[in-house]
Amino acid sequence: MLPRRGSAVVICAAFALLVTATITWPRSGAAGPRQPLDFSHRAHILADKLDCEYCHSTARRSARAGVPALERCMGCHRFVATAHPDVVTLTRYWNRREPIAWVQVNVLPRFVHFTHEAHVRAGVACQQCHGRVEDMDRVAPAHELTMGWCLDCHRSRQAPVDCLTCHY
Amino acid sequence: MTIGRRDFLKVIGAVSGAAASQRCSPAPIETLIPYLVPPENIVPGEASFIATTCRECPAGCGMLAKTVDGRVIKVEGNPRHPVNAGALCARGQASIQSLYDPDRLRGPLTRGRDGQLRAITWDEGEARLAAALRDARARGRNRVAWVGRLETGSLERLVRDWLALFDSDRRLFFETFDFEPLRRASGIVVGRPEIPRYRFDRANFVLSFGADFLETWLSNVEFMREYAALRRRRAAGGEASFVMAAPRLSLTGLNADEWMPVKPGGETALALAIAHAIVAEDLLDARLRPHLPWMRSALASFAPEAVQSLTDVRPDDVRLLARQFVSATPSLAVGGGASARDARADALEIAVLLLNAVAGNLDRTVTFGGASALDALATPGDMRSLAAAMARGEIDVLLIHHANPAYTRPSGDLEAALAHVPLIVSFASSPDETTAHAHLILPDHHSLESWGDYAPREGVEGLLQPAMTPILETRATGDVLLRVARGVDGGPPPALSVDSCASYVAASWGQSNPADEGWTTALKSGGRFSEADEIPVTIRDFRAVIPSVSEPAVAAAGLTLIAFPSPFMYDGRSANCSWLQEIPDPVSHTVWNGWIEIHPDTAHRLGLAQDDLVTVQTAHGRATAAVRVYEGVRPDLVAMPIGYGRTAGLRHAENRGARVAELLPPDGASWRTDGVSLSRVGGRRLIVLQSTTEPSTSRPALAQTSTASAPTEGHEKEPPPADLYPPHAHLQHRWGMAIDLNACTGCSACVAACYSENNIPVVGERACAEGREMSWIRIERYDAPRAQRGGRRRFESVFLPMLCQQCDEAPCEAVCPVYATYHNPEGLNAQVYVRCIGTRFCSNNCPYKVRRFNWARPSWPAPHQMALNPDVTVRSAGVMEKCSFCVQRIHAGKNAAAREARTLRDGDIVPACAQTCPADAIVFGDLHDPSSRVARLAQDSRGYHVLEELNTRPAITYLKRIMPESKG
Amino acid sequence: MPGPSLSPSFQRVTDDVLRTFTWTRVGWFAYWGAVGLCGYGWSIAAVLWWYQMRAGLHVTGLDHPVMWGVYIASFVFWIGIAHSGTFISAILFLFRATWRTAIARAAETMTIVALMTAVIFPVLHLGRAWRAYWLIPYPNERGLWINFSSPLIWDAVAIATYFLVSVLFWYLELVPDFAVVRDRSEGRQRRIFRLLALGWSATAGEWRAYRKAYGLLAAVITALVVSVHSIVSWDFAAAILPGWHSTIFAPYFVAGAILSGLAMVLTLIIPARALLGAQRYITIEALGKVAGLIVALSLILTYSYVMEAFFALRGTHPVERDSYLFRVAGPPWPLFWTTMVCVSIAPLMFLAERVRRSLTALFCIGLAINAGMWIERLMIVTTSLAHDFDPYVWGVYRPTVVELAIVGGSGCWFLFWFLLLLGHIPAIPIAETKENMQEAERA
């Protein structure tokens, strides 16, 4: 009789353990989503010494950082590394007059109103939220963009923590 | 018992599944699609405003289209435009809905042998049109006819030249409400056949004979602004009042201080009787002395006693009115409106003009020069002769451009005649009763998608420029015309050899020569604005025409029917805008329905009750709709709104009320008919009212009034009662609002603006009946007990815009268990949708009942979702929502200030409701900034808080309406 | 192991009480038939709830402004029912009213089950029921907390406490009886009851501890009887709504609660004692005494009705007055007057000895009172909302089939658990009955 009850206890414990594990298992995968063409941030930042805002040009004046228009890419790649297979793909897009549908890496839920402008103005470095993009080839989310994570930073910088700052 | 491994895993699976679903449902793959080539000065995610012109009605207000990422999400008035000075009416606000109309025509169509429409390509369509025109020209002169909405400037010229190319000058600009009598009258009286300008802001006393100048008469937004100025003067202690003489009390009438329920058709006699009284008592303007003799004789037959049988107004009332009218100079008399429109409407306008003359208002409140675009409108006579020509088979091609005569004109001649036209081409952008007759449909762009220009009056030239690329396979009519012209043998004349309508417009605005700044400035400011200088006039001896108005209108037995334009439906063109269907009609509080208005006594006499379905029978036809009992109509009257009973298969407009045109004389010149009988058909159609109850008089009304001379006590500043909690410290800002009940006319433009700005869902007829409408702001009306004095009625109606009061001691905040609603540092009652679990306690505890609950998941018929404001979260089912003082605009304002590294200025932040208010009755700002407008108004002696005794300490101060001194 | 030999009458008690453990064929079918039927009933309601969550609350009759309806009314009703048990066992125990013994067990079981039913409704009526757990103060990375100034939170706390203590009280009283069952059974049943009896061996020491604990709990729970429904009443009294915002609410609700509870005792016990054949123990006298109590409480309630009218009509606030007149003479007048008949007038019949001694009368009037109390709650909740400060948002409320079905389902849920529990425990406190017999013999 006793061993039976014991086994029951063991099973229940294991069960509970597994449940908590499944709920709290970290989700952030290693590499980001696959993109239409293998654009390497590392190459452009470290090698070419490009500034983030050279391509994401509206970060300073809009809610959105902005994904560069194809024209911006072609501005260089008409002449630079034209033989590179990905640049060839790029040129093909350009010739087809077809925009590239990049897969969004850092997605916020619709009920959060985040604006890049305010954060750039406050001198928050891009890396603070996006991680060391300069080390990434295929960009992956550096943080799970949870509310608690946002709040930590807001608190430490005496930024507003009023709900209406983001939720309206 | 033991758990098998499989079961064990199953359980785990279930649990972890549940765990996953606890998080936000797995988001779909979001993609970021950049521009190929970025358009200049458009920043992704930032709104840009494109100046254009509203074409919902001929008033021609200037409009700014707010576009984000290439789609229009809201329209607002253009502050630089002299007509509307930044405001828009409800219809203007809803024009975005006609752009995203789910029933819009998606491409060119042709009607097959079987009468069914089928899609064709544009080339086919244009080819067919060209061929037909070629034949028409071959067959002779004037065999092509154009019936279109009022156009001026480029398109007007384009159409003229184009028709000339096909050897025709049959071009009618058709509007349902033409103001021909005004034009004719001024021609006769002062020798200038043009519609004068009326200056309500200059008048101290306004007397309207049925002219609904706050709704549909001429230019409602402009007049509302000017009328508000008149009311403000009264608040400042000046003399200013407004008497309405009309058989029915319209929204304009409800804003009057007195109502004279004159007999239908008796307006003319009343006006002349007043003139008679003025002349008789020798009060007339000095400049008219020379005319005195002939006037005496001409007016002799209009002694107040003599015409009492026609007007049903007591003589001494007439005399009193006459004295008031001349003493309070400059005064202003206006006449017209649908109810007074009949075969002899010119007589009324002549009488009104005469009245203005004798009171010396000409050149002061009634000015000439600056001809109105409406002067170019086709008259009912023109339409009749066209119909006749069609019937005789003289028309081969009939082109219809944004006009719907088949619906708005009475049945009869036109429909019959249409059958004799071989080819009817419609350029309508959404289906209507006239496209139902068309053989070829070449849908035009919506005005928000097209180039053009419109000048409501001389000097005020508004520009139309596309605010977004067309979303459907439509084509600008101008382009179609030009392409067809290019096809004609011998090629187009130089005037028409232009590649596109856009460049045609640009050219006519002098884009070609770079020296001329006109074009670039026009693009920015929405047009070229100047005021034509006024031309002084002198009245002529028109005794000849006076007798013609003297013969009495013989009132037949039975009731009289008048049709009146609904302020929301206009002539029916706005019927498919769901906002306008769902916002309660300001007068009847009806939503989603047409109705038949009768007086309580009449209802009692005929044994009819509210909501009963009745059939109205006239000499010309019959129609069935539900009864609305209303004290604002004469007992011998049946009143029906124009614009309901659409049958074009528009999803929001279908099966709503009756088409009143069916009941009217076929001449199309009269909105009134006698000998009407009502009969119950049994059954009831619920007329859905937003308020389930009529305002009660058992308690002090929430809308307070005062008089200019009343002791200015203001709202009591007694120390607030002791409180357990410390008062809120609003460190930086304390947002507040002041609403001037003295200026508010109840037009409901703010409600429409709120729907548009805050993504408020439309719930439909049934849900409204269940009291589940979602509007964040509602217009309440309180009618004080009416003091009857002789034939003159004091009608003290006050409109009260009710929205979240953003209380300091908000009852809603205390009871929310999860802080979904709370007091934010700037004094807003924040409502956090994501945190809300829907206990609904906040709404129960809100004394103003301004919170709305999402009973179901909101939905928007495609493509309307494009109009959603990206800055405002779309609420899901089961959460509470309410007015947020447009917090998204507060953020935008702060952000803009920070961008320019400056502090906020008063007026940087304007909520949607305040922005669009034509009367400027709503003022928003920071109560902490003593210099701000709102802070000063909050201290105004007229100020009070609604339900102040509850100590909720609202952030909204209402300013009492000033009633005229009740003397004599 | 057989206990010390019992005197024949004691033996008899035990036999009678434990008869439920050895069903007759008919009894078995009747019992499980009833249980199954109730189970079926509430599972339908469960499906409807799922539908309501999918479709949104527009499937209910709730609207603007009447945002609370039958759900909240039923919540208050069930909480009320939950008051009788503790009242009977605790307060009457403290007053040493021995007649209570026979019905105590049933009443307490009713309390617990009623609470299990009541707590469903606040969750059920939420716009987003799946977020109900946000009402629990748990630490979270979002740094969000709950608003302790909201009466709804007070509710949650009060009811949780009440549930816990009632269960303890109920279980404590059961321990000696479980022991009896344990001693008289074998096999699996014996194993189960061994666990439940917590190794009770009826030593003098144990009895002393038992008495102490019992008295203590009785004292604690007596306080709760008053506090819980007072707090529930503050859900309304703390709001500023005319018809809700009233200081009289707490005592008024408590009285109403106990009244409805006692009425429910009658309606349930009378059939139950027939089913269990416990006529000998649950005597008409006992039931008559309950009826007596009912009269007293109904008089208290009537008094508060009069007071309410007095404040509303003699008060200065026009809105207060309006909404009271609306309640009494407006469209919802049937609610008000039904309440008056069922709650204020019907119970007065108990003043007659004959009525107190007639089972049918007791049963029917009890039923009427329950109906009346439910309607009263509905009236208080909805009529105040329908007719408050702003004439433009006065409204009406008509519950839909979905709502009513779910409410009916809650009744099934209640009976389901009541029968299930009462059928598997000694339905009458054995030990205490014997005690009373001893005392009787001594006297």
Give structural notes.
Chain A is mainly alpha-helical. Helix content of chain A is 44%, strand content 1%. Chain B is globular. In chain B, helix 6 packs across helix 13 and helix 9 runs antiparallel to helix 11. In chain B, the strands form twelve sheets. In chain B, strands 6-5-17-16-15-7-8 form a seven-stranded mixed β-sheet, with helices on both faces. In chain B, a hairpin with a 2-residue loop joins strand 3 and strand 4. Chain B starts with a helix and ends in a 5-residue tail after the last strand. By secondary structure, chain C is mainly alpha-helical. In chain C, 48% of the residues are buried. The chains are: A mainly alpha (168), B alpha/beta (968), C mainly alpha (443). At the B-C interface, helix 25, helix 26 and strand 37 of B face helix 6 and helix 11 of C. Strand 1 of chain A pairs antiparallel with strand 1 of chain B, so a sheet runs across the interface.
Distance between the termini of chain C: 33 Å
Number of strands of chain A: 1
Number of helices of chain C: 16
Level of helix content of chain A?
Answer: 40-55%
The proportion of strand residues of chain C reads under 5%
Instruction: Catalogue the unreliable spans of chain A.
Output: none
Order of helices and strands of chain A: HHHHHEHHH
What is the C-alpha radius of gyration of chain A, as a whole number of Å? 22 Å
In short:
The complex is a heterotrimer of chains A (168), B (968) and C (443). Chain B has 29 helices and 42 strands.
Secondary-structure blueprint:
The complex is a heterotrimer of chains A (168), B (968) and C (443).
Chain A lengths: L1 H23 L16 H7 L4 H4 L14 H8 L7 H11 L6 E2 L12 H6 L4 H5 L16 H10 L12
Helix pairs in contact in A: 4-5
Chain B lengths: L4 H18 L8 E2 L15 E6 L8 E7 L2 E7 L12 H4 L1 H5 L9 E3 L5 E3 L2 H18 L4 E5 L4 H13 L4 E4 L6 H11 L6 E2 L6 E5 L10 H16 L5 E5 L5 H4 L3 E3 L6 H14 L11 H8 L4 H8 L3 H13 L3 E5 L9 H14 L7 E2 L12 H12 L5 E5 L3 H4 L4 H6 L4 E4 L13 E2 L10 E6 L2 E5 L12 H11 L13 H8 L9 H8 L1 E3 L16 H5 L8 E7 L12 H5 L7 E2 L4 E3 L1 H7 L5 E6 L4 E8 L7 E6 L29 E13 L3 E2 L15 E3 L27 E6 L8 H9 L7 H5 L8 E6 L4 E2 L2 E3 L2 E6 L8 H5 L5 E3 L5 E3 L9 H4 L7 E2 L26 E2 L5 H13 L12 H5 L5 E5 L6 H6 L4 E2 L11 E4 L1 E3 L5
Parallel strand pairs in B: 7-8, 7-15, 10-11, 10-13, 11-12, 15-16, 16-17, 21-26, 23-25, 29-42, 30-41
Antiparallel strand pairs in B: 2-3, 3-4, 5-6, 5-17, 9-14, 12-33, 18-19, 19-20, 21-27, 22-28, 24-25, 24-27, 30-39, 31-34, 32-33, 35-36, 37-38, 40-41
Chain C lengths: L7 H10 L7 H31 L14 H25 L6 H18 L1 H5 L26 H34 L2 H11 L6 H34 L11 H28 L7 H31 L3 H12 L3 H13 L7 H5 L1 H28 L14 H22 L7 H13 L1
Helix pairs in contact in C: 2-15, 3-4, 3-8, 3-9, 3-14, 4-6, 4-15, 6-7, 6-8, 8-9, 9-10, 9-14, 10-11, 10-12, 11-12, 12-14
